[in-house]
UniProtKB/TrEMBL annotation:
Protein name: Methylated-DNA--protein-cysteine methyltransferase
Entry-linked NCBIfam families: ogt
Keyword terms of this UniProt record: DNA damage, DNA repair, Methyltransferase, Transferase
Alphabetized Gene3D superfamilies for the sequence: Winged helix-like DNA-binding domain superfamily/Winged helix DNA-binding domain (1.10.10.10)
Pfam family, one: DNA_binding_1
UniProt xrefs under PROSITE patterns: MGMT
Keyword DNA damage: yes
A molecular-function term among this protein's GO annotations: methylated-DNA-[protein]-cysteine S-methyltransferase activity
Length: 127
């Protein structure tokens, strides 16, 4: 796992003791994803030498949204994954996922009109 001392901390993390060291590392990486971009649970997990599920669980517990923009993290295939601790219903949608999609669209992220998947290359420029 990366060291938090090497990862830039967003302002809410500087002033708060909340979160485990792993959660804080996930939140710090998520804070680096620029508006209009997205990344994936798997890319964050690879960077942290962890698992996508662990990253998702850390994002589910993110108390700093929207400044730590967990809505910018999607599943590897371009599906939305979960949001606010919820996963999609059997039909693939849910109110929280509609909110996640709306936040991403507002920032300029594009979606395939047929499949509903996120279009573009995921952000991976973490420092």
């Amino acid at each position: 796992m990366i060291s938090l001392s090497k990862t830039p901390l967003p302002p809410p993390l500087l002033a708060s003791p909340r979160g485990t060291p792993f959660e804080r590392a996930v939140w710090s990486l998520t804070h680096q994803i620029p508006a209009g971009s997205f990344s994936t649970y798997a890319l964050l997990a690879t960077y942290l030498k962890s698992s996508p599920r662990a990253v998702g669980n850390a994002l589910r517990r993110n108390p700093f949204a929207p400044e730590v923009p967990c809505h910018r993290v999607v599943a590897t295939g371009g599906t939305l994954g979960g949001f606010k601790g919820k996963i999609a219903r059997r039909d693939g949608e849910g109110i929280t996922l509609a909110e996640k999609r709306a936040l991403l669209r507002k920032e300029g992220v594009r979606f395939d009109p047929v499949s509903g998947r996120v279009l573009g290359t995921p952000f991976a420029g973490f420092i």
